[in-house]
Design a protein that fits this description.
Blueprint lengths: L8 E6 L2 E6 L5 E6 L2 E2 L17 E2 L5 E3 L2 E4 L2 E4 L9 E3 L9 E6 L2 E8 L9 E10 L3 E10 L5 E3 L2 E2 L2 E2 L9 E3 L2 E4 L13 E2 L11 E2 L6 E7 L7 E7 L2 E7 L5 E5 L13 E6 L5 H4 L4 E3 L4 E10 L1
Antiparallel strand pairs: 1-2, 2-3, 3-4, 5-15, 6-9, 7-8, 10-11, 11-12, 12-13, 13-27, 14-26, 16-25, 17-20, 17-22, 18-19, 18-21, 21-24, 22-23, 23-27, 24-25
Length: 303
């Protein structure tokens, strides 16, 4: 039997939920409820297109020209998005992660990110996936600086929630008071802007239509538990995504450049501790001191 290029496939279940996580990148490859997909997925023997379900560490989104300065020294990351001359989505998307705990409804994987020329810091990373019949999926990411130097750090994840219908025909609710305009290379231009009176104001449920979005939101409305919620509803189904207050930013992507068959079939919802280009701008960047940890959680509920 041939081995899959995404490595071992770890399945967890609870109630009507089932999830599959890959050894490659500790990515969420599948999530289903009552055997209906809740996120866009891909085959076990193909690389994740458009970062489907991947963890974005130690930065989400883009770094302009792959260049940033930390503690007075300038570093150059490999350009992983040459068409826009950017470094995108961190360093662990394709790395092998090790499963250290695998129960029927719970999975923990770890990865040690060692230093490189563009990112000469050392992090011990831990991700935990948990399913519950009543509350769906919870994902918890923890990073510990196991090196001797303060590390610049941010994280995110890249699931695309779906109700099995084109998102043009769905109601979308986005809880952000402000959005971040970007230039033609998808790098932020100026501070976040008030959504009021713009097409980016989706604080109340409304049909998405043909609108294209690939922008970060902040000023997120939260419930009493500190969670901000994105909701997608259509075709008699609904999916809700939440993120805790460790992530003050949320990237929304309407999947316009995905491969045929996936294009605009799901809504990218990316919880982020910092906005695009944070390594360079320093906005909300975490300065993780040696021996210290940082944690964030998010989740998905179908119904």
């Amino acid at each position: 039997m041939s081995e899959q290029i995404t490595g071992s496939q770890y399945e967890i279940t609870a109630g009507a939920y089932r999830a599959v996580v890959t050894e490659s990148g500790a990515a969420l490859r599948e999530l289903a409820w009552q055997e209906r997909p809740v996120i866009l997925s891909h085959g076990a023997d193909e690389p994740a297109p458009a970062a489907l379900g991947q963890l974005l560490i130690p930065w989400p989104n883009r770094v302009d020209h792959g260049r940033y300065t930390h503690d007075g020294q300038t570093y150059q990351l490999d350009i992983s998005e040459p068409e826009l001359d950017c470094a995108i989505h961190g360093l662990v998307r394709w790395a092998p992660w090790t499963a250290v705990e695998h129960k029927p409804d719970r999975l923990r994987l770890v990865h040690r990110l060692l230093g490189s020329a563009g990112y000469p810091f050392r992090l011990d990373l831990d991700v935990e996936y948990t399913l519950a019949a009543d509350t769906g999926l919870t994902v918890r990411v923890t990073a510990r600086n196991s090196g001797a130097r303060t590390a610049p750090y941010a994280h995110g994840m890249h699931p695309y929630i779906t109700v099995g219908e084109p998102i043009d025909d769905c109601e979308v609710t986005i809880p952000g008071d402000r959005y971040l305009p970007v230039n033609d290379r998808m790098i932020p231009e100026g501070p976040a802007q008030d959504v009021t009176g713009t097409p980016y104001d989706r604080r109340k449920p409304d049909l998405l239509g043909a609108q294209q979005i690939d922008n970060a939101y902040t000023g997120l409305h939260r419930d009493e538990a500190g969670r901000a919620w994105v909701r997608l509803r259509g075709g008699g189904r609904a999916v809700s995504f939440w993120q805790d207050d460790a992530q003050p930013w949320l990237e929304i992507y309407t999947a316009d450049a995905l491969p045929e068959g996936l294009r605009r079939r799901g809504l990218g919802v990316e919880p982020m501790t910092a906005p695009p280009n944070a390594l360079a701008s320093g906005i909300d960047l975490i300065h993780l001191e040696p021996g210290h940890t940082t944690t964030g959680s998010w989740g998905i509920i179908a119904g």
